[in-house]
Amino acid sequence: MVIACVEAVCTDEFNIHGVMATTMGASPVIVVNGPVRERLGMNMKLGALGQGSRANATIGRALRLAIRNIGGARPGGTERSTLGNPMKFTMCFPEWEERNPWTPLHVERGFAAGDSVVTAFAMSSGPTLIVDHDARTGDHLAGSFGLCLDSIFHPRAHFATEALLVVAPEHVDTFARDGYGKAEIRARIQAVTARSVEELAADEVSAVGFKPALVEAMDEQARARKLPKFRRDEDIHIVVAGAEAGKFSGAFHGWVTGEVGSMPVSKIIEEV
């Protein structure tokens, strides 16, 4: 398991040097799929993203120690995080595939359902809570997800990053009752977060956003063009984990996405 994690982050696509060197404080988050979850006694249910599971904690910690002690990502050296974050200690959890009415992450990424797979994401913060006790429809719940994700980096930062959503079982049930799949969740998030170029311009409230002179030079159609939060629907990654009780889902906020930053990488676990 640990070897597969190291192999995943030591790819050009994942760009572990950039992930460690950025002052933003990004760190690998590992999601585990397949039969190995049960064999290692990993926790995918109550408290899946927190304490209480030796396997979850030690796999993520072993990866972090390899990055530090073998790769040289020590604070003040390659590691340049301004604030840091708790994920720099460890963050590894399995998906609760049996509670997932949709395609599990590793199958979505091209592996067989029976394969044991790790997927590495470069995340800058999280998990942050998405709290919605009131939604009774997929539209409302995915709308809440969109409103919460709108603040990643900054409400005016669009097309910059990815997100990893951890949907809790009670929220899964709301989506399932309404016939909502991953595609519908992603589309709704994109619709809810769409803002016109004009709305994303810097102003008297905040200097973040498109430069006013640039926006003013655009024609009316260009200024009115709406941009969703994420460049592609596929930049919203969705897994299932957590306790049966509690309408609290989680969101990990990504780092810079694409070839200039980091892309998720999956590796099959070669068992011996």
Explain what this protein looks like in three dimensions:
The protein is of the alpha+beta class and 272 residues long. 30% of the residues lie in helices and 20% in strands. The chain contains 10 helices and 9 strands. It has helices spanning 2-9, 16-21, 36-39, 54-69, 105-108, 138-149, 169-177, 182-193, 212-216, 220-224, and strands at 27-33, 92-94, 117-131, 161-167, 195-196, 226-227, 236-240, 248-256, 265-268. The strands form 2 sheets. Strands 1, 2, 3, 4, 7, 8 and 9 form a 7-stranded mixed sheet that branches. A two-stranded antiparallel ribbon has the order 5-6. Helix 6 (138-149) packs across helix 8. The mean pLDDT is 96.
Strand percentage lies at: 15-25%
Roughly what percent helix? 25-40%
Q: What is the rounded distance between the termini?
A: 11 Å
Shape: globular
Rg over C-alpha atoms, rounded to the nearest angstrom: 19 Å
Find the count of extended strands (DSSP E, 2+ residues).
Answer: 9
Number of helices: 10
Low-pLDDT regions: none
What structural category do the secondary elements indicate? alpha+beta
Overall residue-averaged pLDDT value: 96
Helix-strand sequence: HHEHHEHEHEHHEHHEEEE
Biggest sheet record: 7 strands, mixed
